[in-house]
Amino acid sequence: MENIFINYSILILFLPLAAFVIQIFFGKRLPREGDWVSVGAISITLILSIAMFIAMLLDHDPNFKQEASFTWLDMGSFSIELGFLVDNITVIMLLIVALISTCSHVFSIKYMAGDIRYSRYFAYLGLFTFSMNGIVLANNLVSMYMFWELVGVSSYLLIGHWFEKDSSADAAKKAFLTNRVGDIGFFIGIMLIYTGIGSFTFSHIFDGVASGMLTGTTLTLAGVGLFMGAMGKSAQFPLHIWLPDAMEGPTPVSALMHAATMVAAGVYLSVRIFPLLTPDALLVVAYVGGFTALFAASIAITQNDIKKVLAYSTVSQLGYMILAVGTGVYTAAFFHLLTHAMFKANLFYGSGSVIHSMHHALHEKHDHESDPQDMRNMGGFKEKMPITYWSMLLSTLAIAGVPLFSGFLSKDAILAGTLSFAQHHPGHILLPLFGFGAAAITAFYMFRMMFLTFHGKPKMPSIIDDIHESPKEMTGPLVLLGALSIFIWYTLPYFNPLSSHGWFTDLVVPKDAVVPGNLTAYDIEDGAHHAHYLAMYISIGVAAFGILLAWAMYIKKALSAETWSSRAGLLYTLSFNKYYFDENYNKYIYQPTFRLANKVAWIDWELYDKYFINGFGRLTDWASRVTGKFDFDVIDQILVDGTGRIANLFGRTFKTVQTGKLQNYVLYVTAGVIIIMVIQSF
Amino acid sequence: MDQLNNYLFIAAILFSLGVFGVMTRRNGIAVLMGVELILNAANINFIAFSRFGGMNLDGHIFGLIIIVLAAAEAAVALAIVINIYNNMNTINVDEASALKE
Q1: Facing residues of A86 across strands?
Q2: What is the DSSP string of A23-92?
Q3: Quick check: is A162 in a domain?
Q4: Is A500 a residue whose pLDDT tops 90?
Q5: Is pLDDT of A374 > 90?
Q6: pLDDT-based confidence at B64, cuts 50/70/90?
Q7: How far apart are CA A449 and CA A455, in angstroms?
Q8: What pLDDT, on a 0 to 100 scale, did the predictor assign at position B1?
Q9: Is the peptide bond before A477 cis (omega within 30 degrees of 0)?
Q10: Are A504 and A596 contained in the same domain?
């Protein structure tokens, strides 16, 4: 039992990489373009992850932790160690990644069938899974940073999978560059920590902070720096702009990366570094998360593109998790990460199934104008796609925070945490308000999406006959993940739909922060425990309010959506246009940068290149003309040709000796010998 | 009669005859015969010095080597003469002056 964790981890890490290498080099030549290589490799990692998960459950040791490391770079006093850290959080996260990744692979077999870069697509999925597992297994900031960037690259490659479309290529660039902004902060944070503590390994860093090697503002800045990396990856305000655009990628990619795993990397990082965050840094984290939760939810209300709704919903839910980290209940953040990964991935697969079906129906009618992702073209799909409908409904109930579903448990834990935080710090009453506000809006817009898509009369009656349920490669993951949206899987071996007490809370217990003076884990837990029932009542109340409002507007039509949106006026316009973030970034950041770059380019070309660089060129030209003349006139003409002429002269002079008569030569030789003998005899 | 000088005289005479033959003869074969005379004059010197100089068999060995060398030289030289004849229809060495100048 001892080392299966490390050995399995190595296999789980490198199998997807092997699949990537095979696919990228030989994919096109393999039968079926090699999708079975990727699916096979990822299935093995799923089996290994499940084995590790079961081993973890059997051990039932909340303090379980194994580390293995080796020296990667050794330069005397500066050395970098890389390694694995396997604890309960890692095992659960590996299972999430393997499970969602397997679902995405299977789902993609049909969804991507006939794509021109089918094998390349699977190759990149493998690369992504490898990088994500690398982040999960890292026991130090350096390897985490390396895999962090690899995740960024694979995200770029997958969003831009259909790079012939300008919008896809732009979205890929946008995602990559926006992430880079956060990564600068991440890198600064790593460097600050290394200067203070002299190590990249998490355990050493925590020991160093606990012994006061890094304190005060520097530690706060280091924490905020690391958190900036999380803000980029987890699409937190104000770096959230890339995630909705990333929906240009294939839907299984959106489900895998931009809903369940990659964007969760930021939350995972925050959970890992939680012990070293100072109270100030935690406040930054909490406010960023809380604001993002409410703000993104308010955009999701008015979107018409089904994937855009889900994208903003993801941003909002990630905001929840970050809010939880900020208020100290970081195990709740991780719990929400787990439940959210399941139901959000499922919602994306569901939307993928709907889009797939719409696409085919529109194709049948030779309609290339209508948008297959626009909910204004859907409606009444419930009877046509029952599996998709029911599994999406389960996940919608989960995300809305309805009791008996997984999202209720984790959301409740987070909201209890924020309430308790506000009780400890009465000045921060805004944080629970963000949380509950977002919960109400989430319930509303998720049911708005369900009602618009599946209920009511078909808005395009011409295509409704061509809408069919998707093939079983696509419904399989839907059924599986839909089932995983039910609470029971997360509370075993107990059966109490109102309490998150279960294997998760047994195995993932919060640890004290290492920063001296922070609240202890016991205080936080105790506070959250007391706030639990209040949080539960309020969250059930707001969820019910949101669902009823959506029902009244879109099913009962008692409230007209049009009247209300015009009544909201400016607010509606702001939300519909995503608060003009892209436009303002464009106007106040991109354009000035662009103009500055143009000016600098002008200086570079007009002044530097023309006078300095070209001046050098002219100088060199002149110098080489002079030396060239010297070379030709002096060296060539006098020295080189002179040698030749001298040799020529001698040759002319002595050629008369060569008579061609043998006897002459013999005479010369004899005469020569006689002369030498005569000279010798003196 | 049994004195070094006598041998050296004979060798000198032979050598002079050889050089004379090489220098005056136009016929390639005759030139070769002159060369043979020169070589044999050298041979006589070797053996005479070996005999009277008390150097055991060193000179004899040299003599034998020179005979072998002379045979090889004759074979090669005769082949050259035959080729000259084939190409120029003459064995007059004065005619074979294609490389002059």
Answers
A1: A66
A2: HHHHGGGSGGGGHHHHHHHHHHHHHHHHHHHHHHHHH--TT-EEEEEEEEEEETTEEEEEEEEEEHHHHH
A3: no
A4: no
A5: no
A6: very high
A7: 10
A8: 57
A9: no
A10: no
Say whether both A375 and A419 belong to one domain.
yes
Distance of CA A639 to the CA centre of its chain: 70
Closest-CA residue in chain B for A664? B23
Q: Which two tokens stand for residue A465?
A: 């006959």
Three-class SS state of A405: strand
Q: How far is CA A621 from CA A614, A624, A644, in A?
A: 10, 5, 31
Chain B hits for A667, Cβ within 8 Å:
23
- Note whether A660 contacts B93, CB cutoff 8 Å: no
The pLDDT of residue A622 is 95
Bridge partners of A430, per DSSP, are: none
> Is A663 part of the contact surface with chain B (CB cutoff 8 Å)?
yes
Q: What is the pLDDT of residue B101?
A: 57
Q: Return all residues near B65 (Cβ < 8 A) that are at least 6 apart.
A: none
Residue A629 and residue A524 share a domain: no
The answer to whether residues A293 and A287 touch, using CB atoms and an 8 Å cutoff, is no
Q: Are residues A200 and A290 in the same domain?
A: yes
Segment A178-228, tens digit of pLDDT: 889 899 999 999 999 988 888 888 888 888 888 888 878 888 888 899 999
Report yes or no: A670 at the B interface, CB cutoff 8 Å: yes
Look at residue A164 and tell me if it is in a domain: no
Is the model's pLDDT at A248 over the cut of 70? yes
At A313, which amino acid appears?
S
Query: pLDDT tens digit string along A268-314?
Result: 998 888 888 888 888 889 999 999 998 888 888 888 888 888 889 99
> For residue A631, is it within any domain?
yes
Residues A230-248: what's their mean pLDDT?
86
- Please report the pLDDT score of residue A1 as a whole number: 44
The verdict on a CB contact (< 8 Å) between B94 and A663 is yes
Q: Check CB contact under 8 Å for B97 and A666.
A: no
Classify residue A650: in a domain, yes or no.
yes
For residue A111, the enclosing domain spans: 1-139
Euclidean distance between CA atoms A146 and A80, whole angstroms: 13
3-state secondary structure A236-258: CCCCCCHHHHHHHCCHHHHHHHH
Tell me what pLDDT residue A505 has.
Answer: 79
Chain A residues with beta carbon closer than 8 angstroms to that of B23: 663, 666-667, 670
In words, the CATH class of domain B4-88 is: mainly alpha
Same domain, A134 and A180: no
Residue A189, pLDDT score:
92
Who has greater pLDDT, A538 or A518? A538
Count of Cβ atoms closer than 10 Å to residue A663 Cβ: 16
For the four alpha carbons of A180, A182, A185 and A190, in that order, the dihedral sign comes to negative
ipTM: 0.78
Three-class DSSP labels, A97-155: HHHHHHHHHHHHHHHCCCCCCHHHHHHHHHHHHHHHHHHHHECEHHHHHHHHHHHHHHH
Distance in Å, alpha carbon of B72 to nearest chain A alpha carbon: 21
**Same-domain status, A522 and A627:** no
Cβ–Cβ gap B97/A655 under 8 Å: no
Domain count, chain A: 3
Distance CA A254, CA A125 (A): 11
| Partner-chain contact B94 A661, CB within 8 Å | yes
A264-273 helix and A330-364 helix, angle to the nearest 10 degrees:
170
Higher pLDDT, A561 or A382: A382
Q: Name which of B23, B24, B100 is nearest A659 (Cβ-Cβ).
A: B100
pLDDT score of A2: 54
Q: Are residues A390 and A487 in the same domain?
A: yes
- Provide mean pLDDT across the span A166-173: 89
